[in-house]
Amino acid sequence: MPGPGWYPDPWAPGAWRWWDGRVWTGHVQAAARAPRLPAWLSPPVLVGAVLVVPMLAVALVAEPLATLLPLPSFLVLLAVFVWFDRLEPEPRAERIHAVLWGATITIAVAGFGNGLAAIIGGPAFATVLVAPVTEEVMKGLGILYAVRRRTIDSVTDGVVYAGWIGAGFALVENVEYFVFASAEGALVPVLIARGVLSPFAHPLFTVWIGIAVGRAVVRGRNPAAAALPGLALAILLHGLWNLATVVATGGGVGWALVLAAGFVGLFSGTAIVLVAGRLRGRDEFARAVPAVAARYGLTPEEVLVFSDWRRTLALRRSLPTRARPAFDARHAAIARLVAWQRRPGPPDPVGEARLVASLWEARGRT
After folding, report:
1. Does pTM surpass 0.85?
2. Which structural domain, as residue segments, surrounds residue 235?
3. Cα(149)–Cα(315) distance, rounded to whole angstroms?
């Protein structure tokens, strides 16, 4: 007989039963209702797209070069966070949704709030005091929305979703800056400042929210409440960054250089912390695979491949491009089961069965 774990119920498609080594118990119906929208869309993103896409279309017609110039830095950001996500590859639809959250609803709401603040208190007031709040709150809501969609179950997940949301936001915001700068004949300095010197600014503000949310999910705490300290830090760093730009624009180059040097150190330190955390998570995952193999019925091949990171990468590289999404799906399913084993709190057989179902579904794609 198989070892203890969840197994498909042959008499009830979509259902699962728990085998404790002696008897079958714990019947669970894990089939989910089909979504009304594609997985890469959601009602907030759809509303934001209705508001933002026409603006981008007008910009593309009026200033095609300025509209396309943000793409290289955006692609660099995506590449960095795809590397970060290699530990537990997220579904492609969820990556697209996160980017679209930053590029649509966050842009729409923050743009309205910042524009209103500029009318009431002036551009500096809006830039330094209001923009950091509206933008980081909306990006933070995107991370919490990913929790609602059950896609965040580790600190690394919080970081990568923060990175994708921040990258999407920065892409569209840079389009706005570049189009206006091109119209005013100041495209080159703005391109250097935003596209070359500070492409990681938005993601690195928001990762602190992602870290706080990811830690809350791992510890079984309320992610919305736990996000507040990370949100406060993101707003503070964002506000100081914007203050540096305002001071530099006003002629205070010396102060701006001091703040810029501080931010270089801060960003470097943040990057070191994130990379160290990613490497630590990779090693912890590899060590945990054999421990969960019996409970979830992992095959000897899966244990061999996923308990050695170099072997995992080597096998993935050897696969044809069209086979890699299925491999990533199986990798992600096992990583979520590993994270589930560490989950505090009372048992949740329905949630566990859902994760087991995702592993069987991923196996069926290979």
Report:
1. no
2. 43-250
3. 30
